[in-house]
Amino acid sequence: MTNTTLKLLAQQLQLSISTVSRALKDHPDISASTKAKVNALAQSLDYEPNAYAIQLRTQNSKILGVIVPAISNLFYDSFIAAVEEESRNNGYALMILQSSHNPENELDNLKIFRQNRVSGVFACLSSSSENLEVYKRMNEREIPVVFFDIVPKDNHFTKVRMADERCAIMAAEKIIKRNAKKVLALFGDEALSITQKRKSAFQKFMQDFAPKIHCSIAHASSSKEAEAITKKFAGKIQKPDTVFCMTDEILIGVMKAIQELEIKVPSEIGVISISNGFIPNLYYPHISYVETSGHELGKLAFIQMLANIKGGKTLTELTVDAKYVEGGSM
Amino acid sequence: MTNTTLKLLAQQLQLSISTVSRALKDHPDISASTKAKVNALAQSLDYEPNAYAIQLRTQNSKILGVIVPAISNLFYDSFIAAVEEESRNNGYALMILQSSHNPENELDNLKIFRQNRVSGVFACLSSSSENLEVYKRMNEREIPVVFFDIVPKDNHFTKVRMADERCAIMAAEKIIKRNAKKVLALFGDEALSITQKRKSAFQKFMQDFAPKIHCSIAHASSSKEAEAITKKFAGKIQKPDTVFCMTDEILIGVMKAIQELEIKVPSEIGVISISNGFIPNLYYPHISYVETSGHELGKLAFIQMLANIKGGKTLTELTVDAKYVEGGSM
DNA sequence: TTTAAAGTCGCAAACGTTTGCGAGAATTTT
DNA sequence: AAAATTCTCGCAAACGTTTGCGACTTTAAA
């Protein structure tokens, strides 16, 4: 069965295509009676406007692209979910592609987006040292780009991200309040700007407000690494009494080590992390965490996107605030 | 800056649009020298074919739609990730929408898909009692539909799903081997066919091969419910010595209760679940589980989709097999 | 040298919409 | 009753491709 088109409707009704088109969108030029007829027939033949023809004609695709490192991720999936929700409510559809942390894939994805003339793209950088040339060209073509989470340092882009410094500082505060003597602070991939921000804010705060606390900094880019590092530190003479985890991934590794070594939380060791809350609440006692909501970030990103699409350029860097959620691990 | 089109290229090269078009796709009619020139200019003006024009002309969108109840879900996100990967490798782009378990949203989503003339849709039913009329009409329009995970009973559709019965039976086998006396089996939403399949297979197997084991069946549609039920049963005189969890969600609730009540696993209680493995490995000891891989299912679904698109109708129900993964909880 | 066959390329229609403009019919105003 | 409005509606071009067909030019065969 072939799709019903305006032409088909026009033929059956002995009207012109333009009249049918206008009738369907309630144009004042058309009389109420013809509108009724047109709508009735359209209904019964279940006419669906061809999005491609519309987009070709109007040069407006009503499709937004999203690039994430991985869909299968506790943070990004909630981000995506939020963006999807907002998009649908605003008449946009989403095209989601994953870069798999591979810049080459990222380029492929952008190409697909360009070919599909998306109205805008949400992008999360897949790698640390990124060539931003492509994104600049997107902007030249007037395709707004909203970076989220892992954003470029460059100031020529619209960016939304968590208040990374605040997150790290809030965690540091709690650690100090806990009267920690020796803390192990685990951060993610050193090359990522998000890591740098969190780390430097954390270090500076600890330095400034509790210089006497001994702080071991380490980096882990996977759960396994985090687990290994934790075990190593737990084997030392001076075991850490508090551990800070920058991401869920790290927390998972840390907890594996802690559980295996049967270290008691929080009596023998305190644990605090930055997370959206899902993973921390899986453990017992619940892990205390500074909340970063992918959902909130998604909503914010969408607002920015809309502003960019409608109001021309608005280059700003917005952050969504964090809050501390008490578990039982500190 | 306006997008570069074939027309633009043609003008600059003093060629016809058709020649440019053919040159770019390496058509034998065009001489090597002109091809070279065309490609060079296309390159420098970074020409990107307009997907909408192509789709309008060729009536082939190269876009696949995916409907999931929720993106933010440990099973579905890995399914999506797999489908996305396969799709990109085969020149398809993905449009992902979530129904939020709401049939109304599902209809909206399908409408978007139809308007975008997707080449096919992967669908996971959002609700138990579903009106399949829409899907039938999609098939009439020759838009292949591949159902996954939560599939209709109707035999007029292509379906892929986990080997639900096998999963449940494998779990039952392990429970019997463990020499359980009293087991608590927790299943999900009773109306879902996936629940029914797993439950009836589980019950029948237990009945047939270990009728003496006392089996309490309960349903929970959230972690909270599962937690409450577990606590209730743990408070009885005859505590269960083994608990079976049909989903991750249930497992999480069960483990909350177990941890809170400080019940020892596996000495006081054995735990087994059906999962993709992520959640079970978070606990210590790791929870033993029957593996259902969203990733595998995604790949299978894509194969089926391709077969449907290319080879016309192939209505079958395929299942991906399961395997048991030993944790330390049994 | 003529004829046939390749080798190159352009014309034009089509895909399904939207929209400025103009035209005829019905209505209202002088 | 003529003139000015207002209602309805159709014409036709445009969006950027693809593709069958025909035409011209060059090369190979007779």
Offer a few descriptive terms.
homodimer; 330 residues; alpha/beta; Rossmann fold; 3 domains; 6-stranded mixed sheet; 12 helices; 44% helix; DNA-binding
Explain what you see.
The structure is a homodimer of 330-residue chains. With 330 residues, chain A is an alpha/beta fold. Chain A has 3 domains: 44 residues, no CATH class; 126 residues, Response regulator (Rossmann fold, 3-Layer(aba) Sandwich), CATH 3.40.50; 128 residues, Rossmann fold. Chain A is 44% helix and 18% strand. The first copy, chain A, has 12 helices and 12 strands. Chain A has a 6-stranded parallel β-sheet with strand order 2-1-3-4-5-11, sandwiched between helices. In chain A, helix 8 packs parallel to helix 9 and helix 10 packs across helix 11. The longest helix of chain A has 18 residues. Chain A is elongated and about 90 Å long. The N and C termini of chain A lie far apart (65 Å). The mean pLDDT of chain A is 91. The structure holds a DNA duplex (30 and 30 nucleotides).
Sheet with most strands: strand arrangement of chain A: 2-1-3-4-5-11
Low-confidence stretches of chain A: none
* Helical content of chain A (DSSP H or I, runs of 4+): 40-55%
Which homologous superfamily in CATH is the superfamily of the largest domain in chain A?
Answer: Response regulator
* Mean pLDDT figure of chain A: 91
Helix count of chain A equals 12
What is the assembly state of the chains in this entry? homodimer
Total DSSP E strands of chain A: 12
Class computed from helices, strands and strand pairing of chain A: alpha/beta
